[in-house]
Write a structure and sequence with these properties.
single chain, alpha/beta, TIM Barrel, two-stranded antiparallel ribbon, 42% helix, nine-stranded mixed β-sheet
Amino acid sequence: MTIEEKYRFADFTLPNYKNILKLAINTGYRFTLFDTFFEYSNQSIILRHDLEFSVPIALEMAKIEHQLGIKSTYFVQLHGDFYNALEMKTYNTIKEIESLGHEIALHFDSHFWGITDTQQLEKFLLIDKDTFAKYFGKVPRLFSFHNNNAFTLNCENDSYAGMHNVYATKYKNEYGYCADSTGFWRYEILQNRISEAKDNVLQVLIHDAMWQDVALPPRRRVYKTIDEHASLMKKSYDETLVKFGAKNIDWEGEV
Ligand SMILES: [Zn+2]
């Protein structure tokens, strides 16, 4: 078996993302947003996106879902390494995702704040909740932890700081869960899990840049996104100098 077959690179393309969603619909699943009272009907899928690397790819996914009549939730980082949610282009893209009928919520980075106890958790969640509300014009109903650690894995209450916790006990113990974390199916292949239709409620976690136009190893998918972002930033720098009539000097002189 090749590496490509072992880790199923071909699964992780945007066209196949659409196929998987269609499979779920044809299997009889209905897509639902998170319900803070845990009131889910049978054969529900809660589709969750933790925005990690590429907000533009997340928008492509949001459009695919919109075409299929699906609503999902996009959890946004305020302290991301790979994007700045408060920068104009990214901010507008997030607003565009929301305008397609999807929900936006908080993807919370406990590492940024160095959180080690519940009191600190409540305090810093409130700060990010407030920032999110100020910029995005709505109070987030929900949050998910970014890069769980030993402490956050034990935070299993239904809510903290007035936000629904998508890692609450019920999600962990009573509902199904399938994730594409680090770009492969670590536990179960999502298509198989859907086809088996054994879950009354299934939470599916998706990470944007792990899905590309072409089949690639996970590391290459992330590198591709980083390279594309770098190219866009270079283009933006050149355009800004033109706009302001400033000299743009390289080794060969003015460009
Ligand atoms: Zn994350």
